[in-house]
Amino acid sequence: MKGYLKEKATWVGIATALAFLLIFLCVWLTAYHDVEDRIGNLRIGIVVQDEQFETGHVEKLKEAIPFRVEQLTEVDEAKKELEGHNLDMVMIIPRHFVQDSMAEGAEVRYIINQAAPSMTKQAMESAANNITDKMDEQLLSQRNAGSNPEEIETLSTKGESIHAVQPVIEKMHETKAFAASMIPLLIILASYVGSMLLSLNLYSSASKLREHYPAWRIFLSRFILQALLSIVLALVTIYSISGFGFVIHGSLFLAIIFQGLVYFTFMNISMMFLVLFGPAGMIFNILVLSVQLVTAGIIVPRELLSDFYKELGSYLPATYGTEGYFSIIYGGLGLQREINMLLLILSVTLLIMILKLGVEIIRKPKKA
């Protein structure tokens, strides 16, 4: 044991383990603090197709819903907003709703996008049933006010359940396998941790190569190696997902390009911290990993995070990796926006490393 404690690497390992624990505790507990108090940040779109459903009823409905509510005029428009993750659920009051409610045959349609965090889907499904129950109570009380008391008592004695409204929940982009909901978390976690370990070893190799090769050549060689590895790992990832029976929505080629870009961006971000801070950069990599898992919207929807973490997440690649994988696994509007954002983040990362390389070359004393 004394031999272990005399080695510097032992203390580095102990410090790393402590850093992992403390960083994850601090980030996750602060990020998820008061999440339940921000549940009202989830968004519902309402489309009223029945002209007899008065404006006053719509306003009362908005007040009764404990979420942000937006009224839209067309179902297609609402679906587009739902697919773009600008809404979490669409509620539709269909034509003849008021008339059908008088005959106990009214339905309220709800559309929930399954390409979303599990917490969002569960909250919206629960909300759909609760909203319908409130509408049902209100309509029944209005109808019973003008009914014969003996008639109501007779129905109650028979034990008949009276409902004026029933919910019809439509699940957009439904994938029944539970494992599908875990794929974004699995890929993001594995990709970044793998990139961290790869970057650490490449950095170690580069330290030895500096004695024999110029800095710019090492940088260029590493860049090419990372690009090739990203393509290989992307092929393995996408074909493995497909091999386990999951449907890849959209273009297979585009999915491979997207995953390759996710890997390449992760590799360069993790390498950037090592280039800037040396081995101590791994502390920053652990910090970035923990922040990305919180802010990417994999476990808890980003709308429920504090403004600080929500804004921070918009600058990190895991956010766009997660959104892209929701589209790949469930279907959606495509990957173009996510690819563009990853390219932007990658460009900034490469620019920082190139500037650091330039400073090193300028400062390096010339051999006589």
Question: How are the secondary structure elements laid out?
Answer:
Elements: H1 2-6, H2 8-31, E1 43-48, H3 55-64, E2 68-72, H4 75-83, E3 89-93, H5 97-101, E4 106-113, H6 118-145, H7 149-157, E5 165-172, H8 183-209, H9 215-243, H10 252-277, H11 281-295, H12 307-313, H13 317-330, H14 336-363
Parallel strand pairs: 1-2, 1-3, 4-5
Antiparallel strand pairs: 3-4
Describe this protein's structure:
It holds the Pfam family ABC2_membrane_3. This is ABC-2 family transporter protein. Residues 15-354 form the ABC-2 type transporter transmembrane domain. It is found in: Membrane. The protein is α/β, with parallel strands linked by helices and 368 residues long. The protein has two domains: 41-172, abc type-2 transporter like fold; 178-363, no CATH class. The protein contains 14 helices and five strands. Strands 2-1-3-4-5 form a five-stranded mixed beta sheet, sandwiched between helices. α10 runs parallel beside α14. The radius of gyration is 27 Å and the shape is elongated. The two termini are 48 Å apart. The relative contact order is 0.11.
**Unreliable stretches, pLDDT < 50, 5 or more residues?**
154-160
Task: Note the gap between the termini.
Answer: 48 Å
Number of helix segments?
Answer: 14
Biggest sheet statistics: 5 strands, mixed
Strand share of the residues? 5-15%
Strand order of the largest sheet: 2-1-3-4-5
Tally of structural domains: 2
**Structure class:** alpha/beta
Question: How large, in whole angstroms, is the Cα Rg?
Answer: 27 Å
Output the helix-strand order: HHEHEHEHEHHEHHHHHHH
Total count of strands: 5
Mean pLDDT: 88
Form type: elongated
Helix content: 55-70%
Transmembrane segments: 12-32, 177-203, 223-241, 247-266, 273-300, 339-359
InterPro entries: ABC2_TM (IPR013525), T7SS_ABC-Transporter (IPR051328)
Keywords: Membrane, Transmembrane, Transmembrane helix
GO molecular function, one term: ABC-type transporter activity
